Amino acid sequence: MFLIISAILGITLAGAVLQRVSGMGFALVAGPVLMLILGPVDGIILVNLLAAVNAALTTAVVRRDIEWGKFAFMAPFLLVGSVPAAIMVARFDSSWLLILVGLMLLSALVAATLSSRRMAPVAGKIPMVIAGVTGGFGNTLAGAAGPPVAIYAQASRWNPLAFRATLQPILAVSGAISVVVKLAMGAGSLDQTTPLLWVASFGGMVLGIIVGTRLAGKASQALAHKLSMSVTAAGALAAIVRGVVSLVNT
């Protein structure tokens, strides 16, 4: 139990630091680890909740740089994508969910990496709608709302400072929607979340925000991004392997 609590404390701290420095990373880093510890259903719903709180706290810090108009337009479409993902969570076997979530995380990483290269510019409302729907779907299923919005940011040539700031309320709303929808549809619970686990999760997150705020502007965003991508990839691969082994042994 000590090792589990230590792992949760460490991974939430690391995720909060990376998100504060680079704009995203909390759910991508913490998601795979919590999913392996608590399972693909309870683990991801806890990630959704923690990510929502983390992003809300960060929103208060970066509020002056947020483009509230873009946030207000995109936010409702997060719900549109969240509902079908919750249905999948409720109906899929846990072993298949591990594999599916792992594959989705890897796909999100590949897409985000490719989007960092030069893309044809996009404009208008339709790309924002697509980013909102896919972000809601990805967050509810795998705790991955950031990559679709990051891809849109790259393609629309969104100012990086404004994007990182505006992403925070988007992640906060997306996480809250995912938790509410899954609980309402019976697609997840927080039954495995003990008081000690809550303390470790929120303690690591708050400490990470404090450390990340001190490092913001000093630490290399490129290095933070690479670290979060590496941890996410390792966790996603571990989830896929665990899912496959579970299927083989049944």
From TrEMBL:
Annotated source species: Corynebacterium phocae
InterPro entries hit by this protein: TM_pro_TauE-like (IPR002781), TSUP (IPR052017)
Localization, UniProt: Cell membrane
Topological category with respect to the lipid bilayer: Multi-pass membrane protein
Protein name per the record: Probable membrane transporter protein
Keywords from the UniProt entry: Cell membrane, Membrane, Transmembrane, Transmembrane helix, Transport
Residue ranges crossing the lipid bilayer per the database entry: 33-59, 71-90, 96-114, 126-145, 165-184, 196-215, 227-248
Cellular component GO terms held in the UniProt record: plasma membrane
